[in-house]
Amino acid sequence: MVTSVGSLLVRLVAALCLFQYVQAKTVTYDFNVTWVTANPDGLYDRKVVGINNQWPLPVIEVDKGDQLVVNMYNGLGTHSTSIHFHGMFQNGTSDMDGPSMVTQCPVVPGASITYNFTVNQNGTYWYHCHTDYCYPDGYRQALIVHDNSSYFNEMYDEEYTITMSDWYHEMVEDIKFIDKTNPTGAEPVPNAFLFNDTMNTSLSVEPGKTYLLRLANVGAFVAQYFYIEDHTFKIVEIDGVYTDPTEAEILYIAVAQRYAVLVTAKNSTEKNYPIVTVADSELLDTIPSNLQLNHTNWLEYNKDADHPQATITVETASDLDPFDDMSLVPYDHMEILPDADLVLNLTVSMMNLDDGAGYAFLNDISYTKPKVPTLYTVLSAGNLATDAEVYGDFTHSVVLDRNQVVEIILNNGDGGSHPFHFHGHNFQMLDRAPSYGRHFYDYADGDPLTYDPNNHTAFPKYPARRDTLVLPPQGYFVVRFVADNPGVWLFHCHIDWHLQQGLAMTFVEAPLQLQEQLTVPQNHYDVCDAAGVQYKGNAAGNTEDYLDLSGQNKQLGWLPAGFTAKGIVAMVFSCVSAFLGMAFISVYGASGIKTANNKKPETEQTEGDGTASSDS
Ligand SMILES: *[C@@H]1O[C@H](CO)[C@@H](O)[C@H](O)[C@H]1NC(C)=O
Ligand SMILES: *[C@@H]1O[C@H](CO)[C@@H](O)[C@H](O)[C@H]1NC(C)=O
Ligand SMILES: *[C@@H]1O[C@H](CO)[C@@H](O)[C@H](O)[C@H]1NC(C)=O
Ligand SMILES: *[C@@H]1O[C@H](CO)[C@@H](O)[C@H](O)[C@H]1NC(C)=O
Ligand SMILES: *[C@@H]1O[C@H](CO)[C@@H](O)[C@H](O)[C@H]1NC(C)=O
Ligand SMILES: *[C@@H]1O[C@H](CO)[C@@H](O)[C@H](O)[C@H]1NC(C)=O
Ligand SMILES: *[C@@H]1O[C@H](CO)[C@@H](O)[C@H](O)[C@H]1NC(C)=O
Ligand SMILES: *[C@@H]1O[C@H](CO)[C@@H](O)[C@H](O)[C@H]1NC(C)=O
Ligand SMILES: *[C@@H]1O[C@H](CO)[C@@H](O)[C@H](O)[C@H]1NC(C)=O
Ligand SMILES: *[C@@H]1O[C@H](CO)[C@@H](O)[C@H](O)[C@H]1NC(C)=O
Ligand SMILES: *[C@@H]1O[C@H](CO)[C@@H](O)[C@H](O)[C@H]1NC(C)=O
Ligand SMILES: [Cu+2]
């Protein structure tokens, strides 16, 4: 329930605590979510999602160990919503994770929900809407977990939180994207790029002091390069994982990724230095002449001195050689996990379905939301919760046993890069090809690389971990994690357009333990009642026979033989680069054209020895 709403109200309630040094407290935010008008790029007034009549939205700030309570009232009138706290493991509170139809029902206009969970992590996170692709409309902001016992706590004087993002003038709903008029699935090109939800700003610094910069790309689509002219910095955290301090000059920050870096100011106050962000134009199908890809903000030593524009020394972003996050070492030196109990071999592809529009697939499945949120299917299915069938064919659910070591091989059969995010976990990054740098895009139009378990680069002893990892164009990555967090967790591309096209799957982790552990608060079920969404039953809403999926939501049919020339041309065009030299693509291609039903292809997975079976 929203009790007091108006201005942002943060109530701090110190909890009774037996331990002298532990000061866990409850931090409460009341969010009244309504439309407001904003013009952060100085080009266009638009409607954005505001909180308590404000935009930019409030940064959520807590200390490690705090209980975070967010009371959200949906005052949008027209749109449903929900909040995902990106990077929070929600260990024991999977119901607080936020994605609609995965762990909760959509919060319809006029309804309220309370999120309430313990924050047992440190570092730089963010929150955003996770219903119907609404965060590009402004519903996103940083979430900082302060930790004054971090190893770098004594190494800096002050900290700054900075978001960067792409920016659209149109509302998401007004952008024609999944549409037969856009058969190639070309992503909407942003109108601008923002630096902390504005432009042309300065971070004031004092000589000799060291600053912790918390950087978060809260955009919907475009990655950005980041550097500060004449300054290097030390990376100390990625996606909430402390790293050994590692010097870097240029970062490549994909959407949803975060970096915390230490920058030491020079001793002289004569000059101000450009903080440069460059949008990765390789991601854009077209670059309108009026789109400013690079931006200068300033490390300001002297506000009366000149604020010079960046001296871009290279012509295009692809010539910038960014720091390769695979080479970072977590500060805790957690060793590589043992060989996996379960290996999933997944391939990303983009194809057209029979409406002529472009969709995205993991092993031929384009995520399609179920009729009952998957978490609620777990909680109502009894022992059948361990049977992936009950979650339906198009949520692409994989059931994990408690504490299994899981390895994901993700091959990219597409010429675009995809920042993949895993809810509820971070993963160990074992291998990726090609690596960041000048050759990152070499394969976009050429022969794809596929991961060969018998011939790969040596895995690191202490692999870097993060919750969002970029899958290179026609390359691959390999990650591992332990299924030690009972819950329902989405694994998806964080380009919001690709999520909308179905580039997602679901991990149902330790469902029987989850049934024992979790009690969903009544207000979450009330949200379902308000939305008219069932909270019992299988993916098709069947509460009698959980193995009967008739009536489930399905992805559209494959392109039938003899589909209009326009459709075929579109499909061939969109897939042409992926076809080259890829044996499995001929199978996909053929099945795509010849079959017109919704038969689910087998998902490749095997137990045990690290090899995965091929298509059956
Ligand atoms: C939310 O804010 C709107 C606009 O200021 C106001 O009309 C409405 O009463 C508020 N709702 C609640 C529940 O406070
Ligand atoms: C930032 O500065 C540029 C260049 O001077 C200008 O074109 C742009 O309008 C400014 N943006 C804002 C939001 O003030
Ligand atoms: C939040 O959860 C804690 C722990 O379960 C509980 O004690 C507390 O009452 C809850 N607070 C709210 C506002 O729901
Ligand atoms: C660290 O943070 C806790 C909780 O906010 C606070 O009680 C404590 O005084 C802080 N310690 C230092 C050394 O700043
Ligand atoms: C949070 O920080 C503390 C102290 O620096 C550290 O011991 C702990 O492992 C960190 N927790 C996580 C989840 O990173
Ligand atoms: C970035 O914006 C947030 C929200 O408005 C603000 O709290 C923060 O101080 C800003 N950061 C800087 C470096 O100005
Ligand atoms: C700045 O001055 C301090 C103290 O004189 C010195 O230790 C430090 O090396 C200087 N830093 C730089 C970057 O010159
Ligand atoms: C960056 O800006 C400079 C000067 O404003 C311009 O000449 C250059 O083409 C821009 N580069 C990119 C990649 O946009
Ligand atoms: C192993 O991979 C490397 C690098 O991709 C390649 O050059 C080499 O031919 C491969 N070796 C075998 C035996 O396949
Ligand atoms: C979740 O909590 C359990 C029990 O405290 C712990 O063993 C596990 O490592 C945690 N998992 C994550 C992802 O935080
Ligand atoms: C993964 O699947 C693809 C497509 O079916 C196949 O080409 C590849 O060999 C498989 N990789 C492994 C490690 O099984
Ligand atoms: Cu993607």
TrEMBL record:
Tell me the first and last residues of the signal peptide: 1-24
Gene3D superfamilies for the chain = Cupredoxins - blue copper proteins
Give Gene Ontology CC terms.
Answer: high-affinity iron permease complex
**Which InterPro entries does the entry mention?**
Cu-oxidase-like_N (IPR011707), Cu-oxidase_2nd (IPR001117), Cu-oxidase_C (IPR011706), Cu-oxidase_fam (IPR045087), Cu_oxidase_CS (IPR033138), Cu_oxidase_Cu_BS (IPR002355), Cupredoxin (IPR008972), CuRO_2_Fet3-like (IPR044130)
According to the UniProt record, where is the region Disordered? 596-616
Q: Which GO terms describe its biological process?
A: cellular response to iron ion starvation; reductive iron assimilation
| TM regions (residue ranges) | 568-590
Domain Plastocyanin-like positions: 32-149, 158-302, 367-511
Q: Does the keyword Transmembrane helix apply?
A: yes
Which membrane topology term applies here? Single-pass type I membrane protein
Name of a matching Pfam family: Cu-oxidase_3
| Any coiled-coil regions, as ranges | none
The cross-references to PROSITE patterns, in alphabetical order and at most eight, read:
MULTICOPPER_OXIDASE1 (PS00079), MULTICOPPER_OXIDASE2 (PS00080)
Give the subcellular location. Answer: Cell membrane
| PANTHER family the record matches | IRON TRANSPORT MULTICOPPER OXIDASE FET3, MULTI-COPPER OXIDASE
The protein's name in its UniProt record: Iron transport multicopper oxidase fetC
Protein source organism: Penicillium cataractarum
User: What are the top taxonomic ranks of the organism?
Assistant: Eukaryota, Fungi, Dikarya, Ascomycota, Pezizomycotina
